[in-house]
Amino acid sequence: MTARSTILASEQKTAAWGAVFSMSLCVAMLIAAEFMPVSLLTPIADGLGATEGQTGQAVSISGFFAVAASLLMTTLAGRLNRKWVLLTITTLMLVSLALMASAPSFAVLMLSRALLGVCIGGFWSLATAVIMRLVEVEHVSRALAIMYTGQAIAAAFAAPIGSYLGGIIGWRGVFWVLVPIVAVNLVWQWATLPSLPASQRQTFRSLKGVLTRSYFARGIVAAVFGFAGAFSMFTYLRPFLEGVTGVDVTMLSALFLVLGCAGFLGTWAGGKFASQRVVRLLQAVPLLMGLSTLGLLGFGQQLAVVAVLLAIWGAMNTVMSIAWMSWLSQNVDDAPEAAGSLIVAAIQAAILLGAAFGGWLLDHLGIQATFIGSAVLCAASLLLIGSGRRLLKPD
Question: Which residues form the Major facilitator superfamily (MFS) profile domain (predicted)?
Answer without folding.
Answer: 12-393
